């Protein structure tokens, strides 16, 4: 399931760099619990990055497309 989440995260493109968040190396980890909750640990390209809210929203949307993710994505 983690590989499927990573696959979904590859669809999330940084609009300034035009590269996905996985290939940029922004994703540090993906954890999924037994209830289908997913925790994506990531960093931003710069401190105070103005894309924080945008990237969080796009990541939640991408990961929530997976049927096995039934709970909260943060």
TrEMBL record:
Q: Which domain of life is it from?
A: Bacteria
Identify the residues that the record assigns to the MIP18 family-like domain, covering every copy: 4-73
* Coiled-coil features, chain-numbered ranges: none
Q: What is this protein called?
A: MIP18 family-like domain-containing protein
Q: Organism source for this protein?
A: Lactobacillus delbrueckii subsp. bulgaricus
């Amino acid at each position: 399931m983690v590989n499927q989440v990573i696959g979904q995260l590859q669809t999330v493109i940084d609009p300034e760099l035009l590269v996905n968040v996985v290939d940029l190396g922004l994703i540090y980890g993906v954890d999924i619990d037994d209830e289908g909750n997913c925790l994506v640990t990531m960093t931003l390209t710069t401190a105070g990055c103005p894309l924080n809210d945008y990237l969080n929203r796009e990541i939640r949307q991408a990961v929530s497309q997976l049927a096995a993710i039934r709970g909260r994505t943060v």
